[in-house]
Amino acid sequence: MISVRSLLSSLLACALVPSSAQAAINWPDPPELTPLTCTAGTTAAPVQLAPTSALPAGVSGRVAFSAILFGTDGQALQEMTLGNVNELHPLASAFKPLVVEAVLRDIDTGKLKLNTLLETTPGRRSIESYPAGKNSIATLARRALVPSDNTASDLLHLTAGVTRVAQEVHDRSPCTSVLHTTKAIWALQSGLLPEVLPDPVRDAPTYAALPFRTRLDLARLAVLGSQRLTGPEVEAALDVYFKGPTYSPAMELGVQNTSTARAFARLQAQMLPGATLKPATRALFRSWLSDKESCCRPKNPTFKPAFWGVKSGSGWRMLTMSGAATLKDGRTVGYALLIDQADPQVAEQTERWLRPLAVWIDAQLLRLTR
User: Fold this and answer.
1) Who wins on pLDDT, 37 or 363?
2) In this predicted structure, what is the pLDDT of residue 223?
3) Pairing of strands 76-82, 47-49
4) Tens of pLDDT along 185-238?
5) Which of 86, 74, 67 is nearest to 367 (CA)?
6) Strand, coil or helix: what is 341?
């Protein structure tokens, strides 16, 4: 087995080789224990509550739900859980508010402006629909959060700095990894970055198990490598992978941005209300997260806080729903519902669960905050 240092040196050297060259990489043997769970923090466990009802009919897969109520002093008071809340799950698009918040902090410091224009180039375009030409940061931020546009998110992610966002998220929440742009995720998963993952199915679990600092360097190579590809190239290869015989749920844990339900619920409570932002950017951030066009709150909620921001995500056999709310008495609640390995094999089918699950979450939050 080669050392991690030797591996990284080899990979960095490979990054300098033209993309047409297939440089051989000596990948280390997988660790005996792949980290599938994560716990962090030593604070006392809050009072535990059980959900008021079962999940809506038809919802399937590996499910974890955590909703945590915090007092005005930031102390966790109560938690409602379902499934293994310390088990890692892919986040799908639920990570995007972390990217937008980082950019808004740069606006607060004067490094950027809301009207700063960012250009969609072929290398920066991700999969699916995209904002063509040049668009302002304000336009892209709303697109990243409300319709969950992948290219808008990636443009902001690259502007904020992928390594910087990854480090800041890790510092806030050691169980949460936001290492990749959406395009890098899909390029890795579809096998288009052999300089990082020579054999994606075989090597993704090892990639996930490497130390954070090593993954950070490799993720930088993945993000750079993905910019040599066009969005349509990645999307076409991804369709072949998802519909082919090599699809593996372990791949999501290897290359997606990940967290646990408990860690992500805590992070949502800390971040979504916009406490780190100045009043003007905080108001914008909250307006996008609570936009009526965004998903997902019930049409007629019983839970009626002063502020309720949400972000969902979906993908091949996965669905994520997360959010945070500030109550009128100053308490805060953060939650995360993470589902992968679902029976439906296309996003359009799992997305049909969004509305019934929004009603279910509404009931749980009402019970938790009484």
Assistant:
1) 363
2) 97
3) parallel
4) 999 999 999 999 998 888 888 888 888 988 999 999 999 999 999 999 999 999
5) 67
6) coil
Question: What's the CA gap between 207 and 186, in Å, rounded?
Answer: 15
Helices (H), the chain: 4-15, 96-108, 137-145, 150-160, 162-172, 182-189, 200-209, 212-226, 231-242, 249-255, 261-271, 279-289, 347-350, 354-369
Does position 12 have pLDDT exceeding 90, yes or no? no
Taking the C-alpha atoms of residue 190 and residue 248, their distance in angstroms, rounded to an integer, is 11
Q: In this structure, are residues 98 and 165 in contact, taking their beta carbons and an 8 Å threshold?
A: yes
Q: Strand 117-119 relative to strand 318-326: parallel, antiparallel, unpaired?
A: unpaired
Q: Which of 349, 282, 341 is nearest to 97 (CA)?
A: 282
Taking the C-alpha atoms of residue 222 and residue 203, their distance in angstroms, rounded to an integer, is 14
pLDDT for position 87: 95
DSSP three-state, residue 368: helix
From its phi and psi, is residue 121 left (phi > 0), alpha (psi between -120 and 50) or beta?
beta
pLDDT digits (tens, 9 = 90+) for 70-88: 999 999 999 999 999 999 9
Q: Which of 96, 128, 81, 123 is nearest to 256 (CA)?
A: 96
9, two tokens: 């040196």
Query: Per-residue pLDDT for 3 more than 60?
Result: no
Report the range of poorest mean pLDDT among 182-191, 273-282, 290-299: 290-299
Closest to 137 in 3D by CA, of 105, 184, 185: 105
CA nearest 122: which of 6, 10, 233, 283? 233
Mapped onto helix, strand or coil, the DSSP state of residue 337 is: strand
What b/e sequence results for 160-170 when a residue is b if at least 16 CB atoms lie within 10 Å of its CB, and e otherwise?
bebeebbbbbb
Q: Domain segments of the chain: what residues? A: 179-255
Mind giving me the DSSP string for 48-89?
EE--SSPPPTT--SEEEEEEEEE-TTS-EEEEEEES-TTBEE
